[in-house]
Amino acid sequence: MRRQAALFLTFLFLLSLTLAACGQNPTDTPPAEETLLVDGESGAPEDAQEPPDFDPLVPASEAVAAQWFDEVAFVGDSVSVMLEQYNSSAAALGKATFLCSVSLSQQNALSYDTGSQRLPEYPKGSGQHPKLEDAIAAVGAKRVYLMLGMNCIAGGVDRACQDLVTLVGRIQAKSPDTAILIQSVTPMTADSPRADDALNNTTIQTFNQQMQTLCQEKGWYFVNVAEALSDESGFLRSDFSGDKAMGIHLNYNGAKAWADYLLTHVPQALK
Q: What pTM does this model have?
């Protein structure tokens, strides 16, 4: 009996030791020491910096050589025809290709079939008037400057903007590696006989502002040539006007100021 009691007490003693040992977690480790940070540092990783928003407006820069425009195609209406004529005599814009014609607009460029007389002739002297996107692809232009709107914004600025976006889309579909540069529509003179409730400088400015916003969305460049041709009130300078009947078209001096502006407003990324 004493032997059994001794064995029972021994069992209880061993059991108590086992329970005490189980109360400790051998895997527990002491808390890690806090990391001391150098002044100005943060314990959290730095937030990734988002790239700045694309600014389509081309700023002034050092003038490029005229040869930079050898791979440029200009698309425009009768206003741009004067720039073409100026370049033919002065070669200020090198061997740029001009796909310009009287009364050309984004609307008739989209709606007229190949062979329409409203479209620019290309090649010159061929009698052919291909679609603009086909002519640009045939030229192999690396950069396309467009100034269209004067002949259609009176019918609605929103539609004129959307039609220009559609036209550029067709151009890019045929020439996907071509850079797009939208030129602001030039202003009218203060005494323009053509100005009315639908076509006036306010309408032109509204169109230009909307196109600049669209350029930001699309990743196109916006070249504000209007600022080189405007007076302090935003009208076409009278000494740059060669068109007293309409107050829209430029003379030789106006075309020169335009070309000079283009030479000194080339996107850095395209140089």
A: 0.81
